[in-house]
């Protein structure tokens, strides 16, 4: 892998703790496997809880100077870091594809997306405005200060090994916080490469640590129990989010949670069908279906159901499955065996219930799976309540607007939703009625650093990106001055 990189020093398997590149004290490592080939590409330092504690202490120390700097000074370091990410986009993309599987073009897209949060929040650092409030008495002067919340502990998943981290450390560092990142054990290399560039950009020693560890729950406990940690930011499943929220309760730790989704994608009779197919392809099959905003339930109105199914299957047949580093590949492997089994389980359940495969449906070699479209899907099937997190497009048939809104909202989740329609009254009614944090109207792609990303209901707490995104890393302090 190193030989493919223009700058092999970006391929780092040691952890980054308190500004030092370190092996685990006891010498332990864990393997990182390329999901396309099944080979071990690195053995990464497997840190224990004591080393996480050290990283937290260093972040608290480093914060004193970092937070005292002017916003512009912090922004300049972040701008440099952003520039380095873009300069090294190809190498970062190769590392990302090798550990996670997504095609190189998508991986490079993620690197640009990930970097955009560093750029955006560096700029936002300069706009952390406080407030003055007209006093309630003649001799009172009221001000509201915004101050960094404190050291942030971060836990992220494997599906966006770069962007899930920058989306959190961007606002944290911009606000003046120290940051300790624990990347997913499947994909630590992208996080470590980011830290190499961060160090090069001039991030002060200790302000950012990357604590690689196979023992996620131990790291989670340290984050929840160490009093120096003032905020926990997590992206992952609702199940693990609940565990962390329970653990966080003892310290009344502030939490941001980006949890699971069960995104509805609705195609109305009056939709531009080709555009809807294009949107469904992007929303469903990007990252091989492994994103929390991927369409999970595709509802198609009766009048266009058969035609939509036909056109979608035709588009799906054009996808090329293979090793993400090979030319022309649009769809990589799934992340692991469990992920493949989940897709198989959902397909079997659809078939047992009387649904039909229009295209795909089978596992290929290794962790590769045929992109699949199934019809005749009903509300009692597993895919209606569980996220597949894989390349399965299940088509549900519906008759009326009222009916589909009720179905779309009938879930504990509320992250992303999508619909295609042209009649302006319907467009307005449906966007208002969907109980989701994000609604894509006539588009399947909604992510950008300039907009607030986040869920309602059990999909999470807080928002990432946009000018709102920095608020989660700031505390308000109300000062009442008597003159
Ligand atoms: P995914 O299915 O995307 O892996 P998870 O919620 O299982 O979603 O994992 C998200 C992240 O949370 C991963 O980095 C994982 O290692 C970590 N994790 C899993 N269990 C725990 C736990 N009990 N405490 C802290 N982190 C955890």
Helix content: 25-40%
The kinds of small molecule bound in this structure are: adenosine-5'-diphosphate
What is the strand arrangement across the widest sheet? 14-15-16-13-12-17-18
Helix tally equals: 13
**Rg on CA atoms, Å:** 23 Å
| Class derived from helix and strand content | alpha/beta
Low-confidence stretches: none
Please give the number of β-strands.
20
Overall 3D shape? globular
* Average predicted local confidence, pLDDT: 98
InterPro entries: Ald_DH/histidinol_DH, Ald_DH_C, Ald_DH_CS_CYS, Ald_DH_CS_GLU, Ald_DH_N, Aldehyde_DH_dom, Aldehyde_DH_Superfamily, Succ_semiAld_DH
Active site: 258
Enzyme class: oxidoreductase
Keywords: Oxidoreductase
Structure explained in plain terms:
This protein is an alpha/beta fold and 483 residues long. Helices cover 37% and strands 21% of the residues. The chain has 13 helices and 20 strands. The chain has helices at 49-68, 71-87, 89-100, 104-125, 163-175, 188-201, 216-225, 238-249, 273-285, 305-316, 337-352, 401-409, 424-433; strands at residues 15-17, 20-22, 29-33, 40-45, 131-133, 140-148, 151-155, 179-182, 208-210, 229-235, 254-258, 263-267, 295-301, 356-359, 372-377, 392-398, 416-420, 438-441, 460-461, 474-482. The strands form five sheets. A seven-stranded mixed sheet has the order 14-15-16-13-12-17-18, with helices on both faces. The chain has a six-stranded mixed sheet with strand order 9-8-7-10-11-19, with helices on both faces. Strands 5-6-20 form a three-stranded antiparallel sheet, with no helix packed on it. α8 (238-249) links the parallel β10 (229-235) and β11 (254-258). It is globular, with a radius of gyration of 23 Å. It starts with 14 loop residues before the first strand and ends with a strand. 54% of the residues are buried. The mean pLDDT is 98. The protein binds adenosine-5'-diphosphate. Residues 21-479 form the Aldehyde dehydrogenase domain. GO terms for molecular function: oxidoreductase activity.
């Amino acid at each position: 892998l190193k030989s493919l990189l223009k700058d092999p020093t970006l391929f780092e398997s040691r952890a980054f703790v308190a500004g030092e590149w370190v092996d685990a004290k006891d010498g332990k490592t864990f393997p990182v496997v390329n999901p396309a080939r099944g080979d071990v590409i690195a053995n990464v330092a497997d840190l224990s809880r004591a080393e996480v504690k050290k990283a937290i202490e260093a972040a608290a120390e480093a914060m004193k100077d970092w937070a005292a700097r002017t916003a512009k000074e912090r922004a300049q370091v972040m701008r440099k870091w952003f520039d380095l990410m873009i300069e090294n986009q190809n190498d970062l993309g190769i590392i990302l594809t090798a550990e996670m599987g997504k095609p190189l073009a998508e991986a490079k897209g993620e690197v640009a997306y990930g970097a955009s949060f560093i750029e955006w929040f560096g700029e936002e650092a300069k706009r952390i405005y406080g407030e003055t409030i007209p006093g309630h008495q003649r001799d009172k002067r009221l001000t509201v200060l915004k101050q960094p919340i404190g050291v942030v502990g971060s836990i992220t998943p494997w599906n966006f090994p770069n962007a899930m981290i920058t989306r959190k450390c961007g606002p944290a560092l911009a606000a003046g916080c120290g940051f300790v990142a624990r990347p997913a054990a499947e994909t630590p290399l992208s996080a470590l490469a980011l830290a190499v560039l961060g160090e090069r950009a001039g991030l002060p020693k200790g302000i950012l640590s990357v604590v690689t560890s196979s023992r996620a729950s131990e790291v989670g406990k340290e984050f929840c129990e160490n009093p120096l940690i003032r905020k926990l930011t997590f992206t992952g499943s609702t199940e693990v989010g609940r565990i962390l929220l329970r653990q966080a309760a003892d310290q009344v730790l502030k939490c941001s949670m980006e949890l699971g989704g069960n995104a509805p994608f609705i195609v109305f009779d009056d939709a531009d069908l080709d555009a809807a197919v294009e949107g469904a392809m992007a929303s469903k099959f990007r990252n091989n279906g492994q994103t929390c905003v991927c369409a999970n339930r595709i509802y198609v109105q009766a009048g266009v159901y058969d035609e939509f199914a036909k056109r979608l299957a035709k588009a799906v047949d054009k996808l090329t499955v293979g090793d993400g580093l090979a030319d022309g590949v649009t769809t990589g492997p799934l992340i692991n065996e469990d992920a493949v089994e989940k897709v198989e389980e959902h397909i079997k359940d659809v078939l047992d219930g009387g649904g039909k495969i229009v295209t795909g449906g089978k596992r290929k070699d290794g962790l590769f799976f045929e992109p699949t479209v199934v019809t005749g899907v009903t509300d009692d099937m597993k895919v209606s309540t569980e996220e597949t997190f894989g390349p399965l497009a299940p088509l549900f048939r519906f008759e009326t607007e009222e009916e589909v809104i009720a179905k779309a909202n009938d879930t504990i989740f509320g992250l992303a939703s999508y619909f295609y329609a042209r009649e302006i009254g319907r467009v307005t009614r449906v966007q208002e009625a969907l109980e989701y944090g994000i609604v894509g109207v006539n588009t399947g792609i909604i992510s950008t650093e300039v907009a607030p990303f986040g869920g309602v209901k059990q999909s999470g707490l807080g928002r990432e990106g946009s000018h709102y995104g920095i608020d989660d890393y700031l505390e308000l302090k109300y000062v009442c001055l008597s003159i």
